[in-house]
Amino acid sequence: MVHYKLTYFDARGLAETARQLFVLADVEFEDNRLTVEEFQKLKPSLPAGQVPILTVDGFEISQSATIWRYLARKFGYAGKTPEEEATADSIVDHFKDFLNSFKHYGAGLFFGKTQEELDRARKEIVEPAVQVYFSILKNQLEKTKTGYLVGSELTYADVAVAENLTTLKNTAFFHPEEEKSIASFHQKVLETPKLKEYLEKRKFSTL
């Protein structure tokens, strides 16, 4: 049996999409959650000094989106055709572009920045980026008309974006009553039976 070990902080963040792909596939994995202090000690030995890291029988994979794509392809959530795979990858790349803006707020919240710094990041960086990001999501949902971002079945792109929407809702960047199509998509993914059961048991975490 393959041994999977996922190393990250004790938070949802960039590891939660991978965790949910394991849940969807009914595949066991070691969920190695680090404190900030443990991460600092481990950092010099990590590829690029970053987490998450997925270890597969000793083989290390770094970069969150690369981990998600690897698991999606192994478990059948990458898309049914090369075109769907390309679309899913593109959506995740748009999502990662947005994260470059959101991290100014999210990382600040996680590492204890001042409220003034957080408010500045919210207004000057994240809120404008949310508008662009949501426009991309709404256009894609209008294109598919299936409730999913790619084709007619759940892909890792849906999982990644829905998980991010939970964070944006927790941090008051996403207001479901104002974004009906995105809210409907978010709820559809959360209602996926295996995910729903997992999410009901998951402890609350803002990020």
Descriptive labels:
207 residues, alpha+beta, Glutaredoxin, Glutathione S-transferase Yfyf (Class Pi), Chain A, domain 2, four-stranded mixed beta sheet, 8 helices, 59% helix
Please outline what is shown here.
By secondary structure, this protein is an alpha+beta fold. It is 59% helix and 9% strand.
Task: Characterise this structure.
With about 210 residues, the chain is an alpha+beta fold. The chain has two domains: about 5-75 and about 195-200, 3-Layer(aba) Sandwich (Glutaredoxin), CATH 3.40.30; about 80-190, Glutathione S-transferase Yfyf (Class Pi), Chain A, domain 2, CATH 1.20.1050.10. It contains eight helices and four strands. The protein has helices at about 15-25, 35-40, 65-75, 80-110, 115-145, 155-170, 180-190, 195-200; strands at about 5-10, 30-35, 55, 60. A four-stranded mixed beta sheet has the order 2-1-3-4. The protein is globular. The model has no long low-confidence stretch (mean pLDDT about 95).
SSE topology:
Layout: E1 4-9, H1 16-25, E2 30-34, H2 36-42, E3 53-56, E4 59-62, H3 64-75, H4 82-110, H5 115-144, H6 156-170, H7 180-190, H8 193-201
Parallel strand pairs: 1-2
Antiparallel strand pairs: 1-3, 3-4
Structural class estimated from helices and strands: alpha+beta
Q: Rg to the nearest angstrom?
A: 17 Å
CATH architecture descriptor name of the largest domain? Up-down Bundle
Assigned CATH class of the largest domain: Mainly Alpha
**Which spans have pLDDT < 50 for at least 5 consecutive residues?**
none
In total, the number of domains comes to 2
Give the % helix. Answer: 55-70%
Mean pLDDT, to the nearest integer, reads: 96
Shape: globular
SSE order in H/E notation? EHEHEEHHHHHH
Catalytic activity: RX + glutathione = an S-substituted glutathione + a halide anion + H(+)
GO molecular function: glutathione transferase activity
EC number: 2.5.1.18
Family: Belongs to the GST superfamily. Sigma family.
